[in-house]
Amino acid sequence: xxxxxxxxxxxxxxxxxxxxxxxxxxxxxxxxxxxxxxxxxxxxxxxxxxxxxxxxxxxxxxxxxxxxxxxxxxxxxxxxxxxxxxxxxxxxxxxxxxxxxxxxxxxxxxxxxxxxxxxxxxxxxxxxxxxxxxxxxxxxxxxxxxxxxxxxxxxxxxxxxxxxxxxxxxxxxxxxxxxxxxxxxxxxxxxxxxxxxxxxxxxxxxxxxxxxxxxxxxxxxxxxxxxxxxxxxxxxxxxxxxxxxxxxxxxxxxxxxxxxxxxxxxxxxxxxxxxxxxxxxxxxxxxxxxxxxxxxxxxxxxxxxxxxxxxxxxxxxxxxxxxxxxxxxxxxxxxxxxxxxxxxxxxxxxxxxxxxxxxxxxxxxxxxxxxxxxxxxxxxxxxxxxxxxxxxxxxxxxxxxxxxxxxxxxxxxxxxxxxxxxxxxxxxxxxxxxxxxxxxxxxxxxxxxxxxxxxxxxxxxxxxxxxxxxxxxxxxxxxxxxxxxxxxxxxxxxxxxxxxxxxxxxxxxxxxxxxxxxxxxxxxxxxxxxxxxxxxxxxxxxxxxx
Length: 546
Ligand code: HEM
Ligand SMILES: *[C@@H]1O[C@H](CO)[C@@H](O)[C@H](O)[C@H]1NC(C)=O
Prior knowledge:
Elements: H1 4-22, H2 26-48, H3 54-62, H4 93-103, E1 109-114, E2 117-122, H5 125-133, H6 144-148, H7 162-174, H8 178-183, H9 185-204, H10 206-211, E3 213-214, H11 216-232, H12 247-264, H13 283-288, H14 290-307, H15 318-324, H16 333-364, H17 366-379, H18 395-407, E4 418-419, E5 424-426, E6 429-431, E7 436-439, H19 441-445, H20 490-500, H21 502-507, E8 508-512, E9 524-526, E10 530-532, E11 537-542
Parallel strand pairs: 2-7
Antiparallel strand pairs: 1-2, 3-11, 4-7, 5-6, 8-11, 9-10
The structure holds protoporphyrin IX containing FE and 2-acetamido-2-deoxy-beta-D-glucopyranose (NAG).
Residues 132, 155-156, 168, 342-343, 346-347, 350-351, 354, 410-411, 414-416, 479-483, 485-489, 492-493 line the site of protoporphyrin IX containing FE.
């Protein structure tokens, strides 16, 4: 609540009051305290009484005093005094925000308060476009955990400016360009075959076949290995037995998991600065643990690359690319650690989470799976394996992926929010600098005005219009965001998903777990991505004698 000036005047009042008390007139001292308390309480209530709650009220009363009657305010829930509506961001935030917006008739744009931080959330394609494409929203709010984990020097959280632009340019030419995505196809093929082998083993091992095999671990490890290969040039066998896994995979896997938890957490101190010094949730302490491990891990890989540069152009990985930068693009070692670590971190779980959702839908909707199999029989046939070049012809499978992105967008709130760097008009309302802006992509993709019968799983809806793009041009379904800060890894992610999905589907028919208690459960849990709360268990029946 208290700005520095506020605090200053309170201290003055208190010292005055203490003086009065010192004169031997305790009743005056007490009286003064009561006046202060009442004044404080009234200010709180006054701020809180505003649409959107305390952070918005404070802004209207302090910064816009005098002209506040002239403009309408963004509708939104008041929440509680001081803390506002922090709880909207806990648990399944996308659903809570959508429900609140529906209740208050604020679907297009809703204001709310995260403690002292004003926030808006857009639930309409037009308003979403306004935010994501506005030059005033090209920064991101940097959470304490992001600083703690060094992410402020990586692409995702770096403020909009020269450093960020240089990093994006390097990443788009050397990691995400169409040429690079195509060049890494053989690597994805190797890992795809490892996945099939792992799923066969999983199915054969007696313990799991009774309950169905949990595919999550296979998907996550495959994803991690894929990124470690592109970014660090490291190759590993997919190992189901954790004991036999390489130390590096295990270490990096654990670090990614820990980072995921920390960044996904709502840290109260981010929005209530007076709480920050207490570190009640232990965020600072928890962040400080993985950082030296990350620095040591990535630092060692950088040193190895320095001492042994790649012999062939084909063996160049992203670490080599960063090391080869010259002049103004040259990165300090600590920045390189941040950039590399972010790539591993961002590239790992997102892809695995999306594939798990698709497989869950296919297990649940056997008719759709049958159509996918028909298409695979037609395009690939049963006498050879799927290759990445087949995936362009799998039109129906692409429709399935789009429909899953619509029903289960991995980042329902587009993962990391945007920050207003100046006062800006959004949908006709004035929004102050410092506001956190979110797009509720989940609300848009579940809005019956945007998508008819939104709760139905119907891939066919994308067959009428196969040119529908999910890459950010159409805000009715933009799971990778849009505008200058949209996901740079989107084509790599789509290429990976569109190839890794048909591979096991070509080999197996996926049936639900024989244990009815472990049937497909579509409950969600929102960490950094929106994942299945109950890991998918499947029975895999071979379709092909290999
Ligand atoms: C299914 C997979 C993925 C989804 C759904 C996804 C989604 C997103 C979203 C919604 C954003 C924020 C966009 C915005 O603010 O407009 C984002 C940013 C980002 N993503 Fe992805 N992503 C995926 C895969 C990847 C992969 C594989 C990588 C890298 C290897 C990656 C790297 C990044 C980075 C670096 C940013 C920050 C960009 C910036 O701030 O300039 N993502 N992603
Ligand atoms: C699905 O999982 C959720 C969360 O774990 C649980 O509460 C719910 O009861 C499960 N539903 C069914 C039908 O098993």
